[in-house]
Amino acid sequence: MTLNGYNIGFSRQKGAMPVQGQEFSIEDENDLALAGEHLQAGRLAEAEAVYRNVLTKRPGHGPTLHRLARLAFLEGRAHKALDWIEQARAADANNPYYLCDRAMALTSLGRIDEAIESYTHAAALEPALPEAFNGLGTALQAKGRLNEATDAYRKALTLNPSHVNALNNLGNVHQLQGRLNEAIAAYRLAILLKPNNVETHNNLGSALQRLGQIDEAIECFSHALSLRADFLPSYNNLGYALTIRQRFDEAIAILRKAVQMRPDFAEAWYNLGNVLRTTSQFTDAAAAYQAALAIRPDYLDALSNLGNVFYATSQFDQAADAYVKILKLRPDNVVAYTSAPWARLMRQWPHCAKRWPCGPITA
């Protein structure tokens, strides 16, 4: 699933939050139009230079600081985004748009309680602002307060029934609650409103897959990739769905592409290991699980399956080592507790392993 905050674009397009604050002069408008051209062309550094130039002429200018905050967030610089937005708030502390951007940066930094407070403040100042309620929902969801998050998304949709991000987020929280049919309904409405929303096609596929509608899920993931060829979650999900359908060669190709595009994609390495293990390509499967564990040493499923691969190939000491690592992470794992000595026992009596070729732990 992909969680969506409000649109952080800089245009006044439908669904985007306008940048609010002090008025611009004609000269400012010309500068900002130039910055907008840079943004459209992906020239983020040039856009930032224009904004900074405006600030040299108008120090402390809230709307320009606001734009710099959004630009920093777009570049993944949440700390800097928060710094810019706090400077903007110095002259307009109760601007609800600034409060929403502040909350978004705080959420990205993991300061969720502060984000909830900021979104709540924004909503109190501007009760008709759907982005404040949508953002509040994302923060509440991050805290596991799913019922409250649902209420916040519904409030956003009451204010703006066409709010695609709120619909997608509502679908996500329904998935977390196991309300899959409601999640699918929300995603389908979001797609009706915005047919090219990659995240929503991916999320719809996830919900359909959980309902056992694998072919429909494959269509969703494939469509998402046709819209955006570098959308990694859909590669991973498609690979998993193809594995379920026993289309193993296709699954391997898709998952290999995912890890080539993002070598630190632990979940894709794990799923690749699973399909390789299923097709008895044990050496490659072990390498895939080890790649996943190099990224996430506490990846219990990968450790378990690595141990099983070692067991299946009569590498009993290595299997035992994997099971012992599980115990270090989860001392209460009863199966791993019995599996480690079992694997070492098989080293002494390998003929017994033929009776239990899959090992004591199953994934």
Quick summary of this structure?
This protein has helices at about 25-40, 45-55, 60-75, 80-90, 95-110, 110-125, 130-140, 145-160, 165-175, 180-195, 200-210, 215-225, 230-245, 250-260, 265-280, 280-295, 300-310, 315-330, 335-350, 350-355.
Q: How many strands, which pairing sense, and closed or not: the largest β-sheet?
A: none
Distance between the termini: 23 Å
Low-confidence stretches: 5-19, 340-346, 349-354, 356-363
| Overall 3D shape | elongated
Bin the helical content.
Answer: over 70%
Structural class: mainly alpha
Strand content: under 5%
* Mean pLDDT across every amino acid position: 85
Order of helices and strands: HHHHHHHHHHHHHHHHHHHH
How many helix segments? Answer: 20
Beta-strand segment tally: 0
Radius of gyration: 25 Å
Overall description:
It contains 20 helices and no strands. The two termini are 23 Å apart. The chain has 363 residues and is mainly alpha-helical. It is 72% helix and 0% strand. α3 packs antiparallel against α4, α11 packs parallel to α13 and α12 packs antiparallel against α13. The C terminus is likely disordered.
Name some characteristics of this structure.
single chain, 363 residues, mainly alpha, 20 helices, disordered C terminus
